[in-house]
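can u do me a favor
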């Protein structure tokens, strides 16, 4: 009997912003993610548990990262924020349907 197997090792990076993700600091998050994409790392967990606020600039960074990761065979998963206002935004914009949502990192 012939049996073949292959093992795939993926490197997943967990990123935990511990402040607001808004127009002022979203470029920092984008740059941080880009540095990993440049190393061919395409799997991320973004832990939003300590993120108290996120605006459309922050959401744009997440969508951009998801698109880039999936184009390269990876994924971006999000950890639910503790902030009810950020949770509400994620639900209203259907991010919870587009991203895989985790309870913890």
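np, heres the sequence
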């Amino acid at each position: 009997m012939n049996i073949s197997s292959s093992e795939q090792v993926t490197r997943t990076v967990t990123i935990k912003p511990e402040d607001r993700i808004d127009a002022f600091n979203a470029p920092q998050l984008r740059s941080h993610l880009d540095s990993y994409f440049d190393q061919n790392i395409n799997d991320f967990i973004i832990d939003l548990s300590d993120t108290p606020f996120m605006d459309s600039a922050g959401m744009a960074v997440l969508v951009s990262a998801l698109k880039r990761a999936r184009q390269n065979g990876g994924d971006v998963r999000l950890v639910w924020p503790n902030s009810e206002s950020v949770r509400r935004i994620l639900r209203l914009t259907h991010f919870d349907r587009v991203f895989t949502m985790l309870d913890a990192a």
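The longest strand covers residues 43-47. hope that helps!!
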